[in-house]
Design goal:
3 copies of one chain form a homotrimer. Chain A is mainly alpha-helical. Helices cover 81% and strands 0% of the residues of chain A. Chain A has a domain at 3-111 and 148-174: Four Helix Bundle (Hemerythrin (Met), subunit A). The longest helix of chain A has 36 residues, at 3-38. Chains A and B meet through helix 2 and helix 7 of A and helix 1 and helix 2 of B. Chains A, B, C: Pfam families: MAPEG.
């Protein structure tokens, strides 16, 4: 690619490469857990600990193509900087989500007896309450992650960020048809709005 | 992106954004089912109903990167309009497939006893027969979905559409080498052929 | 796309289309296995044989978006030819990995009794030893596949190739910032280095 084209996508490319590193990290964790707990078996089932890492990884993997598509659509059709920023936020949320799952796992494996299930829930509530209390200490990213993880119970996370990227893409496509129909280009307004809204993603 | 480049991909981008909305819908259904039936557990297993939604979602997710790749290859290497049309058809098939799975699920959970299994199969055959009968009422999309769902039993669907997109990509690459070797450009013939064939995807 | 742009991505597009064919092959194998062993059930669980094919397919599917992203990043940001070559190598490794899983499966289903587990392991070691012995006969690809399959036990394979593609992408991005900051373009050096290193991927 020539220099100017590259300048239009370099931030998106950096975010994408960070996400690749993160995927590698998740896969490494999964492999480690599998080696530790499952011995020589190739199965997808195993100890509760392995099940959890597997599920966390699976949820991240399932959402990955959707994330990539919205990231690049938003970046190319609308504006690069806010899209790359939102993408970075998503990766932070994903990291917190995965680590939250692992933490939950560790706690569960300690109280693995069914009769301590109720106790474990109480304990978890306390952990989450502590998470809310530590919000001011650790910044919004942590709380975002914890909140997503709690509210979605593991199937969807980072909904708001994906929605933001999706709306940016939609704005880019609408702008194309406005140019086509009325000859008026709202690209600058659009970029200004996207830049203004993107910091709001930091609010937990 | 500048205006001309955007014009070459805008239909593909629209189809892609619709697929993102659909992914969100599938994930929402899965989350809802998980909340309703599994209580607080994070597991991938659960009631039969949850298993079905999970499997349906997994099959859609697994095929998603392949679909995106063939869609954009066909659109960029060959011709945009037929590729976007085929992509839209694929999304319709996918929707019918997912909804078919959910319907199958509901029916199964009603007759959950093993001894009514045989009865359930008979009932299902009748449902499928009814589906064939309602073909003229509901249009080809529905039958396509039902047929795919029945014939593949959940692992591959929309084969014909993916094949069409794949052949379009292949034609685009062959055309590149024809230009390289003989200096003759068959792009217009290729586009005409793709445009002519694409309505055939509507035939159930 | 115009002719020059197409020339910059045609090799990447070919590798991508081959990977699509391979995905179809994997999905076909999974469907076949499901039909043979599971009868009419839609479940993700089943016989050990089905579980294995499912797991092998799942591992390939999970890594697929990451592979595509690094392939195209490396090809667009750095150099096309070594990236396409590495991508092709990855596809070979993936094929060997999948076939290795199937072979393992067949062998396991023969000795399915738990008491012959230990015996099965010994047999497997012998198979792997035979694999090493046949290295000179079958070329490096086979050994690479067997080695990856053995060492990672099914969760990550082709690490080295993904790493190579990732480093190429990283070099491309670093080069962009070097041009931005110092005005010196190292693109030619970079391409030469990538071309020189890529044959090393053939070493098992």
């Amino acid at each position: 690619m020539d220099y100017e084209t590259l300048g239009n996508v370099v931030l998106l490319a950096i975010v994408t490469l960070i996400s690749v590193v993160q995927n590698g990290f998740f896969a490494h964790k999964l492999e480690h857990e599998s080696k530790t707990h499952n011995g020589w078996s190739f199965q997808r089932t195993g100890t509760l600990a392995f099940e959890r890492v597997y599920t966390a990884n699976q949820n991240c993997v399932d959402a990955y193509p959707t994330f990539l598509v919205t990231l690049w659509s938003a970046g190319l059709l609308c504006s690069q900087v806010p899209a790359a920023f939102a993408g970075l936020m998503y990766l932070v949320v994903r990291q917190k989500y995965f680590v939250g799952y692992l933490g939950e796992r560790t706690q569960r494996t300690v109280n693995r007896k069914p009769k301590t299930e109720e106790h474990s829930r109480l304990k978890r509530s306390r952990v989450l309450a502590a998470g809310s209390a530590s919000q001011t200490l650790l910044g919004p990213g942590v709380t975002e992650g914890a909140r997503q993880w709690r509210s979605t119970r593991g199937y969807i996370f980072g909904k708001r960020i994906i929605l933001f990227l999706f709306l940016m893409s939609l704005a880019g496509i609408l702008n194309y048809f406005l140019i086509l129909l009325f000859g008026s280009d709202f690209e600058n307004y659009m970029k200004t709005i996207a830049n203004t809204i993107s910091p709001l993603l930091l609010i937990p």
